[in-house]
User: Fold these one by one.
Assistant:
Number 1:
Amino acid sequence: MAPDKISVRCCIAGGGPAGMMLGYLLARAGVKVLVLEKHGDFLRDFRGDTIHPSTLEVMHELGLLDEFLKLPHQKVYELNAQVGEMRLTIADFRHLPTHCGFVAFMPQWDFLNFLAEKAARYPNFNLMMQADVTGLIEESGRVVGVRAKTANGEIEVRADLVVGADGRSSIVREKAGLKVKEFGAPMDVLWFRLRRNAADPAATMGRFDSGRIFIALNRGDYWQCGYVIAKGQFDEMRRQPFETFRAAIVKLAPYAKDSVQELRGWDDVKLLTVRVDRLLEWFRPGLLCIGDSAHAMSPVGGVGINLAIQDAVAAANVLFEPLREGQLAIEHLRRIQKRRELPTRVTQGLQVAVQRRIIARVLVETEPLKPPLALRLLAKIPFLRRIPARIVGLGIRPEHVDPALAQE
Ligand SMILES: Cc1cc2nc3c(=O)[nH]c(=O)nc-3n(C[C@H](O)[C@H](O)[C@H](O)COP(=O)(O)OP(=O)(O)OC[C@H]3O[C@@H](n4cnc5c(N)ncnc54)[C@H](O)[C@@H]3O)c2cc1C
């Protein structure tokens, strides 16, 4: 059967934070846009549930903040860590020059559903779930559309611009033959939930101990936990009795000694493979990549969603007029990469430095850990905590919605 054919101005592959925000902004500006998302819903776990002050500021600029904050969330005003026996605060978001001096922890599906619901008000917006982009359509060296498998068969979408927002295993960037620079990562993360009891500590906490790193995010009635392991170590761990893993968690989080028994085995633990990479060129004629598709982010600092949203805002600011008028040129795509490459380079540079200098060392350390000088200074001089807060909460070059786009 011949595939169904659809024609839009902009076709976005991937309905994650980058794709949904860009789709929403373009539709709001009057551009006919189609987002193709391969899953049937946004209800996936393990994707990072942090909404940063810069994203909350974008919501404010769009007039959506008050309604958005009515969704259930936890406000995190500071980031805390325990290194060896020393507890310290490493970032304080309260002083940021934004409407919200906190990170909102919210399940990512709530955030994406909210954007989908708001976008659905615009007749130009279309979201197709269970639409798996499988290839690009090219004519004379230009990308002119995509092919996708849907629940109802194959479709062909023609568009002035195809945007790859399909995450770190992007099929779009692979099919486009865009060159990738890999930075490597010494670790992977085991991701799981533990029940949270009323007597448990309240703080969202990173715990660094010799040979072990454990992150516990307070999500109200449960802890979202990340247990950092050396890359490739998971197979060896799975050969050990599961009890060994439970005991390792309790050593780092004694309050979890009962709830850890509720983990039934390795099936309750998800391996998240960490990678850090960046495209040399984020575009080709008719095609642009943004978010993790252009630059896969490490979980260090929990800033990947922030960057994905910032990319979407920067892209929408540049693209909404030329796409609406049918006058898209390669220069527009170049301008987006130019604007977003510096923040990406700096952020990834910091992440790679933390991975190599701190995480890789902690994972092989056998002696009791002492906090490095930089952390001891943060503990002693509260003013300094504003620096990491700025890097994590706002990012290197915070984007603002173009006033013409912000007005409905
Ligand atoms: C262990 C770990 C923990 C992390 N924790 C955090 C955190 O706490 N905070 C934070 O800010 N960042 C975190 N990150 C990074 C963050 O997950 C990413 O940087 C961010 O999700 C990127 O957003 P995106 O929209 O570019 O891509 P994604 O969120 O990956 O979204 C891509 C979307 O495209 C869809 N898709 C993929 N292929 C196709 C296809 N062929 N056709 C159609 N759709 C497709 C996917 O289903 C998905 O919905 C973490 C990363 C890791 C590895």
Number 2:
Amino acid sequence: MRKARILGSGMYLPGRLITNADLEAIKELDTSDEWIQQRTGIKVRRYVSDGESGVDMAEHACRQALENARLTRDEIEFIIYATMSPDYFLPGNGCFLQDRLFPHRTVGALDVRNQCSGFIYGLTVADSLIRANLYDYILLVGTEVHSTGLDFTREGRDVTVLFGDGAGAVVLGPAPDGHAGVIASALHSEGKFARELWLEFPASACNPRISHDIIDQGRHYPKMNGRVVFKHAVTRMVEVSHEVLAKAGKEIGDVDLFLPHQANLRINQMVAAQLGIPAAKMVNTIEWTGNTTAATIPICMCEAVTQGKLKENDLLLLTAFGAGFTWASVLLSW
Ligand SMILES: CC(C)(COP(=O)(O)OP(=O)(O)OC[C@H]1O[C@@H](n2cnc3c(N)ncnc32)[C@H](O)[C@@H]1OP(=O)(O)O)[C@@H](O)C(=O)NCCC(=O)NCCS
């Protein structure tokens, strides 16, 4: 059976740099640079400017990924778009991106809603479609605009300081003979923890979907039980990394580079320590991006390329955990 590989990656971070000092200056938020750095490792994150959308960022990231893959837009046959913060609830961002990148022809576009695991879910779908010979070249993009939906008061400070906006994309295509491509993947969800990190409103489960009362109560902002998320993230990221390695018949020592989701530097340090992966074999971007959810893994990939940490045929372990709860891992050859 043929295999799929990543041919190129791209990323985009919006221009508004928000430091911890900027957040500290918002009195109602009641936070500090010291608290944020100590608990999360984050120093700065980026926010979109007024009028700038997820699809705007996706377009930049995709153009860069195409350039790095040395492909033209004409060769792309399918779009997979992962985000938990779509520009609009109807239709999904995939259609808007199709119009931006391919205004003169139609292209299938699939929207993926798996939060921080969204990119790895999307990667697994892209791999399957290429293996099944349905398509040759697929554009996979993850974007997130968090900043327009955060609670900048003390009530929301635990969530607000963590997140940043951004986009990351890759182009996938058939791997040449002898290249291992995407080797194995493992996907999980456990909905009994859905309410430990969620955004309740607007909700089609309620009529009306939103009201003035709900807004007054701040129930249109994301809510999180940070300690529960932290504990599960460490356990599940270690577990699923071992699972995907076992599926591929590989061991931790075979991994050349580990790209974990970026939710909290302390989570990643604990995961790496439990897996026995040295710091030199891991890339972290959280210090300067915050948590960019579905955009995180491709942003890390771009950073690994920039740092010269990725060589042809290197074994790459991607692992993520997020709301749902969902968690996932992919092992691939670069
Ligand atoms: C959010 C997180 C950083 C909080 O760190 P923590 O050490 O667990 O802190 P706690 O939630 O126990 O809160 C400790 C104190 O800090 C306070 N606090 C919370 N957020 C704060 C902030 N931004 N600034 C200042 N103080 C804050 C709390 O109110 C609490 O105060 P109290 O002791 O007076 O009640 C941590 O739980 C975490 O990273 N969880 C996982 C988050 C995550 O991964 N989310 C995305 C999933 S992909």
Number 3:
Amino acid sequence: MKIQKNYNLSKLNTFGIEANAKNFTGIESEADLKELFNLPEFKQNKKMFLGGGSNVLFTKDFDGFVVLNKLKGIEIIEENSEYALVRAMSGELWHELILFAVKHGLWGIENLSLIPGTVGAAPMQNIGAYGTELKDTLFDIEAFEIETGVKKIFTKEECELGYRESIFKNKLKGKYFISAVVLKLSKLENKNIVYKTLQEYFDKNKITEYSLKNISEAVASIRRSKLPDPKILGNAGSFFKNVFLGKDKLGAFLEKYPDLPYFEDDGSIKIPAGWLIEQCEFKGYRKGHVGVHEKHALVLVNYGGATGKEILELADKIITSVKEKFNVELVPEVNIV
Ligand SMILES: Cc1cc2nc3c(=O)[nH]c(=O)nc-3n(C[C@H](O)[C@H](O)[C@H](O)COP(=O)(O)OP(=O)(O)OC[C@H]3O[C@@H](n4cnc5c(N)ncnc54)[C@H](O)[C@@H]3O)c2cc1C
């Protein structure tokens, strides 16, 4: 196993932030993982597993061991006429798993097409888009306790998945490496096309056949046209989570802000964080190397040469403004390292 010192991570995070890892290696198999767990340098250092780097902000050099996950493989491990259990190794690109599902006629994750990053990071924040979340199809996950190297299966319930949350982002933060994910996908048509943007796309492109492939391609196409490509403009997608309010608070909000967009979600009221940021006039804001995307108030961007600290300072400024104006606390979705 090759260990590299002072490894530059700028190409391994979609913000494109320059940060060095004191020690760096990649793993391609469970055998590599076992070797890693026995390495003294690994045991003695702070550790971080990295997938596609599309949900992290490095604010300083990483004074420890960064492990790039390259575990590959996707297979159907059980199936009947109604469903298939699909096991994907955690270093697979998430979109490769989508392509596998579409090819095999398996429904359930097509609305999550083209979300950047790896399969193993998907449960970390219960990825979601276009009215679907990972938790709708997750069966279980396989993970290794980082301290002991002991393997454990987590059932879906044990993962404690919520809105951009899981046990691995909370109680078990930094404690487990997710090595494989098993999804239960449907062989029976199971489309979810209620999202307005999707419907508009189908209407505009005169698509009337809502096949798995058409839905997946529609989602991918909408995403390509709407979201900034990190290869061109450094970003990590939505920087903040949307905000949930108790129903009792809605009346007062609407009185003050009659245009407030909101959605009912699981008995709470969800307010788009992007709208709150826009009201604080940050959309299109730019200072030095950093800014807020001109079309997406939720997306913070690196215009080139930014440090993680500069992005964090901008995030703090936004949090303060939103708090002052709305008395609402924005919470970052991105993992700050
Ligand atoms: C343009 C853009 C659009 C996006 N759109 C969406 C969206 O629509 N919905 C959505 O939910 N997210 C979205 N994201 C965020 C991101 O794509 C997801 O959070 C994705 O799951 C991150 O995967 P990753 O492999 O890049 O994780 P990384 O950024 O590499 O890691 C994220 C965190 O998970 C940890 N981690 C990674 N892999 C493992 C593992 N195997 N075991 C244990 N811990 C691990 C890391 O240590 C880190 O703390 C978007 C990002 C971008 C850049």
